[in-house]
Amino acid sequence: MGKGRVKAVEKRVLDQKLKGSVNVRSGPVYYPTEDEFKYPLEYIYKIKAEAEVYGICKIVPPSSWKPPFGFRQRRKSRPASCNSKTFQLEFNRFLEEQLGKNLKKRVIFEGGDLDLRKLFNAVKRFGGYDKVVKGKKWGEVYQFMSSSEKISKCAKHVLCQLYKENLHDFKNYHSLMNADPAKDCKRLMKRNADVTKPKVEIEEEIDQAYEQCKSDKHGEVMLLCDSCNKGWHIYCLSPPLKHIPPRNWYCLDCLNTDEDTFGFVPDKSLLLEDFKRIADRAKRKWFGSGPASRTQIEKKFWEIVEGSGVEVEVMYGNDLDTSVYGSGFPRVGDRRPESVEENVWNEYCGSPWNLNNMPKLKGSMLQAIRHNINGVTVPWLYLGMLFSSFCWHFEDHCFYSVNYHHWGEAKCCYGVQGSAASAFEKVMRKTLPDLFDAQPDLLFQLVTMLSSTVLQEHKVPVFTVLQPGNFVITFPKSFHAGFNFGLNFAEAVNFATADWLPYGGYGAELYRLYRKPAVISHEELLCVVGKETMSLLGNCCDGKGSMYLKKELLRIYSKEKTWREQLSKSGILRSSPMFLPECPDSVGIEEDTTCIICQLFLHLSAIIGKCRPSVFSCLEHWKHLCECEPPKLRLVYRYTLAELHGMAQEVEKSGDCKTQETKSSQRPSSGTKQSGASNKKEGMQVCQARPAEDWLRRASKVLHDVFSSVEYATLLKEAEQFLWGGSGMDRQRSEALGDCLSKVEGKFNNDPDKVHLEFIDELLKVDPVPCFQSCYLKLKDYAEEAGKLSVKIDFTLSSSPTITQLEQLHSEVSSSPISLTKHKILSKKISSAK
């Protein structure tokens, strides 16, 4: 097996200024061998240590890798509803405004998720719902949506019902939203002119209750937009504010009005041929019909960005969904061009470097996501022209990204290593303070460019690669940007190996801090991958990957433990488990709700109040949920702390088994013994022990007092605070109980190695009840019998017993499986009596 080499290293130019670039050093270029190229994720992991410090690298495939271009240039217009993001925004707005819902429920058809956008467009294509029903065209609708040609009569009926339930009303809403806006403006102006002042105040109050958390509580921290007069809690903003600002403040909706918008603006639909003509004309306009050097193009681009040139508007076909428009790579189910041989087409359909396959390869965490996510697990297409650009950003959830340049002129990419991300953001905020003051979440919007020269002047390392016909990889948390030298066609998607997991945790936290809805639930992904790894059946995580998974599971366990304990101290004592589906074996099987404040997916736990039972908060923002006092709030949880901690430990053992399996090609037996270090790690101290003991003493006192329904009810409610820890919170103690019981049951004679009653008593009272373990109850019975015997000894010795009574009692004590301290006193008494 050969070894991959870095071209820049061979030529001694790595880290040097690339010829023709504008003061930017080159990133590494890799040339994998045929054997190395067979396993993309393994190869990327192999070069990671060297390439990650650049944030970006280029991989040139072997000369034998020549995938046929699979994109069919169909004459197909692109209405707004075809755009996945536009449709999702409009549909969510419809649910919120018309039905009062924040999240849509999952719609299942034929055992999988139904793509409502595809169904909506398909029905529209065949003339609308009425014509499809009248013409019985549900079969044609299904064929338009799917590559499958057959559908049963029952499935046709189900598809019709699903459209009627989910999209029929949305169609009317969509038509109204896309009607002549002038009429709506006139109607709005007329309504505003007729209302009286008191009515305006009422409307404002309603508006204030309808932003973000939909609550009219906590008015003292309500901030009103000085333009639209809508209200926001300062803790709901992105990012949240600590104080109400002294000057005028404007919400993001008002800041993003048409007059003030900068960045990307949706334009008309174009055919590919038309786009080509516009791109060619633009290139000739700037640089004539002759070739232009990289230096010329790059210099002119940054002059435009920095404002020294004229303002330029260019077109960019970006974020085009391959499930709608087709992919540049061959795909199973797509029509094969006649010029491509069938065996070649099939070979590249299954190639691991085919971006349609890469997110779900063995070793990718995204394999646990069963449904499709546009731009993450489903590639996007990018049709570029001269100066069309993508601004500084890093990927959703800090994923890896891979971009393949199918054809056309070069794409110039810049990268900043992930470890310099904080320095990068500081420079951006320092250089563009007005923009960030107006929009603190500016970097989420992908509309901000800053010259690499400025970044390097502030000691932020920037590297560049030029991409004609090859792969560009960006690493987790690495900011990247770039622009096109002319007409080209590219495709990109995300992937996530196990070493990405800690970056994914950072990305999820960033979404939470900026009050942004995440693409996936990071905690759910960890738990699903963790369960798969424990079963030894999953392909997401191998032996070396289990180390990253364990660390991330322990991190969320520690965070969850801290918050649950704080809630208990704050007075939230009630708890109950979540209602769970039967087989949650993949991410997205169920629809997790989100925190009403920070938009975090509430997979592990949530807080719910009596006054607003349909909304939830995360454990951190429970104070902003409603006006209920802590005793009226409830913690709902999916896993006990013991289950979370146990999952992390089992992942480590399973990873060891997989490593052993890889080395020996044999699966280890289930009786493999744990190491002493692992056993020590499993023992954990939960601070619930002390309050549980206090609760137990109070309960014991109440049970002996006169019956009081109020006190009984209070104790039962308070007892719920101990449930989320789980019976496994005393796992180390559980093992000790089992060992102790086995010794007790094996010592029914006068053996000096008997277990002492004092030791058993300490063991039984270490952790809180309830403890649903048979060994606990059995050992407790033995201890109670031994305790009665100890009391009998005291009573007998306090009287004037005969030698016969003492010997009879001595026989009972000797037969007990538990050693009593007073046994020695009894023996001395017998000896002195003789």
UniProtKB/TrEMBL annotation:
Region (Disordered): 652-685
Molecular functions per Gene Ontology: zinc ion binding
GO cellular component, one term: nucleus
Alphabetically ordered keywords of this record: Metal-binding, Nucleus, Zinc, Zinc-finger
Primary localisation category: nucleus
InterPro entries: ARID_dom (IPR001606), ARID_dom_sf (IPR036431), JmjC_dom (IPR003347), JmjN (IPR003349), Znf_C5HC2 (IPR004198), Znf_FYVE_PHD (IPR011011), Znf_PHD (IPR001965), Znf_PHD-finger (IPR019787)
Gene3D superfamilies membership: ARID DNA-binding domain (1.10.150.60), Cupin (2.60.120.650), Zinc/RING finger domain, C3HC4 (zinc finger) (3.30.40.10)
Residue ranges occupied by any ARID domain in the UniProt entry: 81-175
Regions of compositional bias (Basic and acidic residues) in chain numbering: 652-661
GO biological process entries: regulation of DNA-templated transcription
Cellular location(s): Nucleus
Domain of life: Eukaryota
Domain JmjC: 347-512
Database matches in SUPFAM superfamilies: ARID-like, Clavaminate synthase-like, FYVE/PHD zinc finger
Domain JmjN: 27-68
Comp. bias regions, Polar residues: 662-678
PANTHER family, A to Z: LYSINE-SPECIFIC DEMETHYLASE, LYSINE-SPECIFIC DEMETHYLASE JMJ17
Name used for this protein in its record: Uncharacterized protein
Higher taxonomy: Eukaryota, Viridiplantae, Streptophyta, Embryophyta, Tracheophyta
